[in-house]
# Entry
Amino acid sequence: MSTWILFGPTERRELHSPLSLEACRDKLRAEIGSAWNPFSGWSHAVRGSVSDKGFWIVKTKGYRNSFETEARGTWSAEGNGTRIELRLGVNRWARGIMIAWFGFVLLLWIWLLVAARPMAGELRGWHLGPGVMLLLGALAVPFGRWLARNEGRFLLGFLRRTLECPPDPEPIA
# Structure
């Protein structure tokens, strides 16, 4: 199963800000809430982390969604401004954990079916457990992505306004 099918596409964008690299860092730091302090996020529309190499941000909301859209970017000085390479998509850790989880449950199901072959005449309900787990996982991911359906547009707009980037003629998916 392709990760695109499970988690949706990962958008890659390149933004250009007329601000210097230091000004971009300082401005973004001032506008976002802390990713590690859940109470600081309520006064900011976006929370995350900013470093010398880049940043990652997510939209602040009143619930937890492991499949929320994350904007992760790196920046570099370019002429009189800053070039920002941006990735919008599901967090890499959530993606990796879910892929490992699906693989584990699938292997467990195969093992249970092979191990139970000698008892083919008996109906065992525990054979259905991993199948139900796969189904619930396969429904949880699209539901989480549906909850995050407009976050990519929101984060891109936030970055454009905050870092004074010109508008992009290509709309976000």
